[in-house]
Amino acid sequence: MKRIPALLLAASLLAAAPATALAQATTDLSKVEGGHFTLDKSHAKVVFAITHFGFSTYYGAFPDLEGTLDFDPKAPAKSKLDVTINVKGLATANPKLDEHLNSPDFFDTAKFPTATFKTTKIEVTGATTGKITGDLTLHGVTKPVTLDASFHGGGSNPMTKAYVVGFDAKAQVKRSEFGVDKYVPYVGDEVELLISGEFDRAQ
């Protein structure tokens, strides 16, 4: 019976841990540290959504990313982002579909294994929001794309002690503009992108 209070105390400490971790991050740019950051691959992903014959929305992801961020919290518009996506590493939880998407019918990753995004302009739209415009190169085609970005905050990671900044972003692209037009319009042309990433400041 004496073990029960101890177990309750342990459970309460565990329940409090996420709040403690969240308290490390701040969105107050006057308190955020800048510098050169590298993308934390274990906490970054691009999710895509596309309509399937008008019956449903199909989801997949590009979980293998690399990138760098030069972040200036005093002048966010001067920041620079450079990301490389391993297109060949796409994941839909359907191995046969993954194989088909990698084929010449779609991404043709034997010829175009990666995609890149490099900023050309950043516009601050709010205390924690902005529009990040850059050149997206996919399937051998380069087009400008604008991301609607949200700043989650910066602070020290309580586990790794690294200084981290984190962002979410959304965008919409037409795959046909990049030469990926198989089955359009039956399988949607417009693709929604949901992006999330944490960046660790380089030591």
UniProtKB/TrEMBL annotation:
<keyword id="KW-0732">Signal</keyword>
<feature type="signal peptide">
    <location>
        <begin position="1"/>
        <end position="23"/>
    </location>
</feature>
<feature type="domain" description="Lipid/polyisoprenoid-binding YceI-like">
    <location>
        <begin position="36"/>
        <end position="200"/>
    </location>
</feature>
<dbReference type="InterPro" id="IPR036761">
    <property type="entry name" value="TTHA0802/YceI-like_sf"/>
</dbReference>
<dbReference type="InterPro" id="IPR007372">
    <property type="entry name" value="Lipid/polyisoprenoid-bd_YceI"/>
</dbReference>
<protein>
    <recommendedName>
        <fullName>Lipid/polyisoprenoid-binding YceI-like domain-containing protein</fullName>
    </recommendedName>
</protein>
<dbReference type="Pfam" id="PF04264">
    <property type="entry name" value="YceI"/>
</dbReference>
